[in-house]
Design brief:
single chain; two-stranded antiparallel sheet; globular; alpha/beta; 221 residues
Amino acid sequence: MPFLFVDYDQGAGGEKFCARISESPQCEQLRYQKFANGRTKVHDVFEQEFLKPAPKIEIKKSHIDLYTVVPTHRYTNLARSLLEHVHSIRIQRPRDKELHQHMIEQQIKKVLLTREPTPEYFFGLLKILSRSAVDKDFVRKVKYNMLTVEIILLSQKIDPTPDAVEQYLNKIRNAKEAEPDQHYDLVVPYEHLIYNPAQVCSALYDTFGIVVAEDRLTSYD
């Protein structure tokens, strides 16, 4: 069976979506964790490598009988170039201004203004940032109780003062990002996840034959 890549931007709830659809009888179920701040973290077959800024991919096979669900940030074309039998879903950035702001604030609240929930994720973040860090010695300045945004700033050789943090967050709030120029088998508008989960369930079935109960996609954020 194919890999099923779910492509989304931070704040769109992609890992929660992956976890929920993987509970379908047609998918290999993902292990996942839910944390107190509302964030969901999945453990996929590539160990979240397709979510990283510069992924290093070890080639693997998909499940023989079930869809293998994989989250990614805009690396669907890379997956197609490396792997056999890739199907894809894109969670489209919201066009509605209020929902767009909501998605950005979700990214800020659940990712940037939090501490990594476990030592595993903390050291994983340091490893990811080390690949592209401006200051290769930034890890010497990092403390375990730092916010994610503060660690990112240190990796960029920026002193994580309150003003620097606010400036970084405002750049994210004001950024204008276009949708990726890639082909997807199914595009799911973010608005449908919020307001019309029944339509999303129908589209999943019509496109992939995946059956997801509507209540698994309610209270989505």
